[in-house]
Amino acid sequence: MKNFFYNISSGNPKTLVMPCVASFLEGICKIVPAALVFDVFNTVYLSFANPGIPLNTGRLWRTWAMLIGWMIVQYLTSGFAYSKTFTAAYDASANGRTALAEHLRKLSLGFLGSRDPGDLTTMMLSDYASVETTISHYVPQLVSATAFPIIIFIALIFINWQMAAAMFVALPFSLIIVWLSNGLQLRLGKSHVKAKVDSASRLQEYLLGMREIKSHNLSGQRFQRLQEAFARLMRESIRIEGLIGPVMMVAIALMRSGLTLMVYAGTFLLMGGQLTLPVFLAFLLLGTRVFDPMTMVLVNYAEIRYSVLSAERIMEIRHERPLPGKDDAPAGNHIEFQNVTFAYENTNVLKNVSFSISPKSITALVGPSGSGKSTITRLMARFWDVQGGRILIDGRDIKDMDPEKLLSRVSMVFQDVYLFKDTIGNNIRVGKMNASQEEIQWAAKKACCHNFIMKLPQGYDTPVGEGGCTLSGGEKQRLSIARALLKDAPIVLLDEATASLDPENEIQVQRAINALVSNKTVVIIAHRLKTIKGADKIIVLENGKVVEQGVHEELLAKEGLYQHLWSLQQQSSGWSMKAS
Ligand SMILES: Nc1ncnc2c1ncn2[C@@H]1O[C@H](COP(=O)(O)OP(=O)(O)OP(=O)(O)O)[C@@H](O)[C@H]1O
Known about the structure:
elongated; 2 domains; four-stranded antiparallel beta sheet; transmembrane helix; alpha/beta; disordered C terminus
């Protein structure tokens, strides 16, 4: 039970206290009118059954006045309960979503990569929405459905224990049916969630891959996958409703049969003179007050179970441990790989890789495609932790460092640049969130962005689409260099930074990069070897191993892999496409 409340409140059960208290107060307020109506009936019945006793009109007026007065109290308590439960629900989901997004940022990319893409989106939107409804609707219902039957049952026992027993005799059987169906509900709920996540993933894949789908004429095949995912979701939804619905109907019918039994028992007791009509009526009035909230809980039981599953999924991620480490990143920039071994899944991508990089030097990583160059730069930034060996900065293992502090000392320029759905200026500001407009323009000028930005309709205030789809590949690349210039971190990792630039811009960007890297420790990946010919050190990788290291001339003299790659590039530089 503790886990239940812990999970549905996304780890913060205190948020449930106010909705529960408010709903309890609201429920108590709803009982009072029933008692007042009972009093009216009792007063009228007293003079009706005993013609000698005059109708106590004074008492009747007082009770009517109290009923009207109580309507105001009820209105106020309902308003209070409404605002408390909804505020708590929206607070819990908004804070929960923010906390989860913050937590996801701290997890390794390895963990995030292992999740289905639609999974986290579903969690953020749908699972939190389900938790929200539970807090705003189902938890208050649960409070009413549990607390009132207990209170009323105890009260009714003192009035007439036979009637109280008749009212509640079927309840345990109804609860047993609900309890027995738990396993089935869990199983169906899990496959429903899976179908939902799968649909979200297929939809995401379909929309993001639209360019490839169109260019490769895959509309039929990819759409079929999406259609199948939706069809499965539909089947799972029908299955859950079709199987759970009838079970719950039986449980509800059994529970409500208490009312019929009570009427039956009441009639006998009334005829036998063991019960007065007002008391019989009181039982009828309270019976509906008790059974209505319990019926609502059973009607919504599948939804409650569903939100428990949602909350469990959220908590599973919230319990995922972020990358450890609390130390500051050292001021120096001597980087050392010591026998580093790393695998994304099972196959080792890096095998006993060792090398060192001097501060304020330029080191190039070279090697065939898939040899592990990008992996090395990602490990330096601690996107993943290594499985064997160590990566040291100034002699200290980066595993002991706070990942955010480490990242604050590293600038990265990737091959694939992501631009946020924001203005161009704010996209450059990502490098330094408090940068002034002058600083942004300075970085943009250095990265050869300024001219093309000024030609855009709103200059630096021009919005770019999600993923930066309104800019060319070269323009995106240059914006990313501008971000790195602005960040001005002492370690710079360039992964094919100039890959998509046209020849016209390349010279200028090379100059900008030279300004960016001066006095910095630079690690650069470049397929075009002529761009890194002057590097202080060239590390040659093959199949995840360091096979050669040295400067350009030394490596050429070795006549190994580097010399081979170099001569291949010399040959291909004269390549041109020929019509057959
Ligand atoms: N996120 C990932 N999950 C699983 N495997 C990966 C992942 N990223 C890379 N790999 C694999 O790791 C190996 C090394 O990849 P990496 O990107 O480091 O090579 P690279 O030398 O930079 O290649 P390229 O020059 O083509 O960019 C490849 O076999 C690649 O398929």
